[in-house]
Amino acid sequence: MSYPVGLPSDNPIVTLTHPTPIIWVLELHNGEDSRINETLIDKALQPALNIVERDWREGWRAARKAKDKDGGGGALIIVGKRGQNKFFSNGLELDKLRSDPHSAHNFTPLVHNPWLRRLLAFPIPTVAAINGHCFAAAMMLALCCDYRVMTDGSSRRAWMCMNEIHFGAAYPLSFASIIRTKVPDPRTQRKVALEGHHFTPPEALQAGLVDFLVKGDTEAVIAKAQAVGESVARMATAGAWGVIKRDLYRDALEASARDDLLQQIDADDAAAKARL
């Protein structure tokens, strides 16, 4: 594979690079705020994950064949658009969803999709390099990663937030199950899901939503994320990283696989009216 790779090829909205033999960097750049939509998921993110996994597995198999115990490591870093320090991602492309009468307040076309499960059980360590605001579906993407490195917000403010409660949108099973899995404290779950709290970087660190804070710009965040990735990349050499995660996160993986229909607010109200 020749790097860098832009996906989709006709209008790239992600760029995949391979700066060292064991590190891959996936940059999201769908507009200035890296919005998540079906094109990004199906035509860019998923194919990029395929490339990384294929390349890693080829190296891992070669290392096993050569009985190289130090070979076959790897880690993937996901970052928002480079060259700016404001957004990791602003979440789903809601304006387009709201303009579609069949999709308004219904994320099913986007979340009934294996992308979150794929990332949650990815076979090598994953690090979210959160270089700015991280909202809604982007927070889900970050939580699905194994580690999270975030800007400390000293040069430009940055928040993590699940803001669906503020505009009256219900969660799909995948979102709720990931929150339960990655945010085990019920008080923090309440702040995330029911209050839509805007976590500052220090609050996110204290709550366990992120693992490290970094002073500086996007490149500083990437550098720290790469250091984290390199520190654990060898854990993938045995081939068990993804296998263990599939069992560790089994409840979330099974729940998200059942995301065939998202409960609608109006339907919930109609059901309540009928029974009360």
From TrEMBL:
It comes from the Eukaryota. It holds the Pfam family ECH_1. Signal peptide: none annotated. PANTHER family: ENOYL-COA HYDRATASE-RELATED, ENOYL-COA HYDRATASE_ISOMERASE FAMILY PROTEIN. Belongs to the enoyl-CoA hydratase/isomerase family. This is ClpP/crotonase-like domain-containing protein.
